[in-house]
Amino acid sequence: MTPFLKRLLRWLLILGFSGLLLAALAVGVAYWLVAPRLPSVAVLKDYHMQVPLRVLSADGKLIASFGETRRIPVSIGQVPDMLKHAVLSAEDADFYHHPGVDWRSVVRAGWHVILAGGQKVQGGSTITQQVARNFFLSPQKLYSRKLIEMFTAMRMEDEFTKDQILELYLNKMFLGHRAYGVAAAAEYYYGKKLDQLTIPECAAIASTFQLPSAVNPVSNPQRLVARRNWVLGQMHEHHYINDAQYQQAIAAPDDASPHEQPIQVEAPYLAEMVRQQVLKRFGNDALTEGYVVKTTVESTRQQDALAAVRKGLIAYDRRHGWRGPEAHQDLTAAPTDAELDHVLAGYNEIAGMQPAIVTAVSASAATVYLGHDTSVQLGLAAMSWARKYISDSRIGVAPKAVSDVLARGDVIRVSRNGKDQWELAQIPNAEAALASIRPEDGSIQALVGGFSFLRSKFNRATMAARQPGSSFKPYFYSASFDRGFTPASIINDAPLALPDPSRPGGLWTPSNDDNKFAGPMRLREALVQSKNLVSVRLLDAIGVGYARTFATRFGFSLAALPDNLSLALGTASVSPIGMARGYAVFANGGYLVTPYFIKEIDDRDGKPVYIANPARACRTCEERLLNPTPPAPPPADMLSAPANSVVASADSTPAPASTTADETGDDQGPLPADAHGGGTHPPVLAPHVLDIRTDYLITSLMKDVILRGTGSAARALDRPDLAGKTGTTNDHRDAWFVGFDGDLSTAVWVGFDNFSSLGRGEFGAKAALPIWMSYMGSALKGLPEDSLAMPPGISTVLINRDSGLPTTASDPNAMSEIFKVEDVDKLRAKAAQQQNKDQQHAYDIF
Questions:
Q1: What is the spatial distance between Cα 212 and Cα 195, in angstroms, rounded to a whole number?
Q2: Which residue numbers are catalytic?
């Protein structure tokens, strides 16, 4: 080597060493400058990613998911190797070999900046750097931010293993359409779990990391496929897939489409109640900390309840005729599918009723476009019910031609019937609610707040304040039985006029539903036949004040009960859940339970943070038997909030609708006692509010309502353990049926939100009872009969059916009746007095 070359080499070595020294010095100075701003990466060890709140049924089926993000955290072991390889090929092929920063990529990115005239360019970040940026830094393109990112990444490499860093990356990154992490992306775009993904699907998900909003399988399929194929090429180049797999994968179409998390149980009103309650307990973190709420609702019972409500409302709606199309659109001579799709885009499917537009009509059929290039034919049989609506009590004649009902351009609804055939449908204007609870502990088994949550989020099951009509009568009948009246007491069913200055003529003249009078009759018959005039006289006899106070034993507040005789006609303000709770007292032997719907709350790791320990009837519990308590009013904090700010007056005119709290559904009060802390938790005993003998008498009367009274249609269920009562308010504004056995207490209400009349003849037995029967028939199917056994202190006595007094077996008008034992001697003495009077009357004749 010549001296010149030696000197040149020496200078090059000196320059090179100096350059390395300067670079090291620059890095050191840079680190010294940014070190105070470097985050502590140790916090990632306990970092909780945002995970939505999930609401489940009692049998573990999904009811709802609440949260701004879609995320399903997974461990690195749950991620298939093929997906890992796809992500590494797309984002950082040397991930497992560099120290957190890929210096070659940094130099390459720096060279690109020089070539771009100093403009900042994309690229150069490793997966570790991306994790650092997404957890700790902003996305701003600043040189200082880049330096902090690089040093943070190197710190992470010292603190975590490569697999731990990759796990954070695969769970944290945004991948479009509110999906964060690969598991959520797989579910949303392909409706699959990670282990079900194909090679091209793995590559497609890996392709979304770079520009998730613009390049994802739904927003821009063409760009996604191009990016996917590039990723497949990288996987092939790095020998993650072979030639055959590569060729097959790039030839595969991408069939991604939005897949919302499948809701397995339709209970949106309950889900909103849960959301409000969990927010109240945990604050805003409730929607991001991955809590799982297990409710008390059984999925099959909930589905049966929803089906019953919708079937009943549709039946009511069809009885009152066809109100016409939802809208009308003037169509061109030959509208395109795109034009028709544009019209239908403004309408959502509601309760299985699909929007459609009529494109052609004749006397015998109509062609109806459903959207997405699909048309169906509707014949006259598909709209045979569609008699024209005239008023709430009148409809027109049956249609004789399809053109009598439909016209070209009509926007209508269609649905499939039981034979899977399309037919004309109509969204009901009336509403309904159903609440069903277990009498033992108040756990809600099913809850339906209306026909469709999409159409109206007002929860009528818990928030409505409606008049219960005659379904309220069992409460003050119970009060009368504690005041010495019996099922055989005679009350006159005759016209009645009471002073009322607010009425024309100054008199209030209540009447029976049929405007007929039966004269003196036993209380059993009066309740079975729902005689209003007997109820008014009975309430007057025991006193309105006493009856109101007694009704609080069933959970109602005094403010919800009018302080006048109209209470006899059911002018209180109540909700369906309140009525189900009240009747649960009859079903469980006289104990007031509180409805609840959250059974357990688990954290993201599956550990319980709350387990309900509700107050129970627990009639045979040792704690109850060792410390018996006499029936008494419940504590004041157990009473429902006033259901209406306006107390009904004696004319029983409905007061305006209001809520028991606010219109968010947060009206259920605090959660039951918490029992998640471990150890033994003695049962919480519900207050004893009703003598079990009074309970047995009233239940006997309500069984007769079903056996031979206004609820007799329920005999079709062939269950002797069922008891209940119909209810109808003035002008048929509200229709009720509330009933129970030992397993369930269920209330059904039907009416209009604006208090319009349901129409002539729409009594509780016609509008509400079929819904109750449909639900209870399904919910109790296969369960044994469960009814209150005759308690001690009840006697069966022969009475005369006309006088209600004890008689002998030789009396041709004799019948059996049940009484409290202390009432029997009084009645026998009264019968003896009556017999002496009759004999004296006979002597006087002579």
A1: 22
A2: 91, 470
